[in-house]
Amino acid sequence: MTMSNRTLNLDDTLYEYVLGHSLREHPAQSALREVTRTHPGAGMQISPEQGQFMALLVRLIGASQALEVGVFTGYSALSVALALPPEGRLLACDISEDYPKIGRPYWREAGVEKKIELHIAPAAVTLAERLAQGDGGRFDFVFIDADKSSYDTYFELCLQLVRPGGLIAIDNVLWGGSVARPATDPDTLALQALNRKLHHDERIDLSLLPLGDGLALARKR
Ligand code: CA
Predict the structure, then answer these.
(1) Mind listing the pLDDT tens digit of every residue in the chain (221 residues)?
(2) What is the Å distance from ligand 1's center to 213 Cα?
(3) Which of 60, 71, 79, 116 lies 20 to 30 A from 183 at CA?
(4) CA of 71 to the centre of ligand 1 (A)
């Protein structure tokens, strides 16, 4: 017996086993993942098991108002929207319409297009506008997955937008493992600084999950 009391490294065989024994994708999710697979930015798409995990979180906390910073081709938005109740809404922020428009037909196919409000503008501007409009504390679930140098700005704005007990999920916080080594590039430095800050941030409960490229879960106290 080879039990492990720390997180396993997944080789290809074990990873295929995990997917083969747990993945429950809507056909539109599989189809969107397939069209994104050949895209030059395909590495930016979250893994299907991460999409399913976030959908579970959305259901666990009973989220109805969700927010996404960084849409890419819309797989995570689709995963979250499918988990929201019929009256639920996802405010999806991106600076470019080029990538999200790839996903929109699949949002439609899955019957969740109306739940997703795509907002094309710098997310920091959109989030500040929402705060000014009185949307502070209105969101239940947030997913941050955009330019890493702005993560701290997004986190601070989202922390005001989310309700106490709401959840902020932050993607790529392990950054291929580079956060654990000395770094000079701006993205790694920004992620290292955010991880240091989150560790002792008294405003949140924290879990840094080695799922995908590292997913930080911050529950607002
Ligand atoms: Ca990501």
Answers:
(1) 678 888 888 999 999 999 999 999 999 999 999 999 999 889 899 999 999 999 999 999 999 999 999 999 999 999 999 999 999 999 999 999 999 999 999 999 999 999 999 999 999 999 999 999 999 999 999 999 999 999 999 999 999 999 999 999 999 999 999 999 999 999 999 999 999 999 999 999 999 999 999 999 999 99
(2) 7
(3) 71
(4) 9
Is 14 part of a structural domain of the chain?
no
Distance from residue 207's CA to the centre of ligand 1 (Å):
17
pTM for this model (two decimals) = 0.97
Residues bordering ligand 1, an ion, CB closer than 5 Å: 145, 171-172
* Number of compact structural domains in the chain: 1
Cα 22 to middle of ligand 1, angstroms: 21
Cα-to-centroid distance, 187 and ligand 1 (Å): 13
3-state secondary structure 29-85: HHHHHHHHHCCCCHHHCCCHHHHHHHHHHHHHCCCCEEEEECCCCCHHHHHHHHHCC
Q: Output phi, psi for 75, to 5 deg.
A: -70, -45
Range of 69's domain? 22-39+46-220
β-partners of residue 206 are 218
